[in-house]
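User: Some background: our group keeps a shared notebook of sequences we're curious about, and every so often someone picks one and asks for a predicted structure to add to the entry. Today it's my turn. The entry only has the sequence so far, pasted here. Could you supply the structure so I can complete it?
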Amino acid sequence: MTTVYLARHGQSDWNAALRWQGHADRPLTELGRRQAAELAERLADTPLDAVYASDLIRARETAEAVATPRGLPLHVLPELREVDVGSWSGLTRLEAQERFPEAFARWRDGGHGWEDGELYERMAERVVAAVLRVAADHPEGTVLLVAHGGPIRALHAVALGLDLAQHRRLRPVAANAHLSRIAVEDGKIARLD
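Assistant: Of course. Here's the predicted structure to add to the notebook entry:
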């Protein structure tokens, strides 16, 4: 069994402004850097074999706060990126609702909103495949993956045996720097806590 800690990146400037980011490469705020340091403190007594992160700077900087003091290299995986929100990138919820009312209603109900970008299901497929590869590289190990709200939500849905749209309707996105844990056993993802 591989234990996989999942951490959402610290607060970015667009998180603070309540803007969709998707693949936009937005930096951490001062609060986000503090959250990354606090994450490192929470994990200080947890043995880690490796640290992985999305290639977007907000995830990389958060992961570096954990990896650097331990002398661990940071493994960057573009597959851990947030869902590509296409033309909604940079918009607030109100702006998206005003510009794309029908699409926004679909999104709010758990469906696909933006007409361009990436489907949640495609994002989930790439993230799950990446996590299974990481687990195969660390059998019986413990790793940290620093990613984004969408990918973490997708992994939780798989671990709970829920449809991603259903999970999106039931549970809010994890807070910045939130830490959770899943397990990968026999090539399958299972929720621990």
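Suggested note for the entry: The CA atoms of residues 41 and 66 lie 8 Å apart. The first helix runs from residue 13 to 16.
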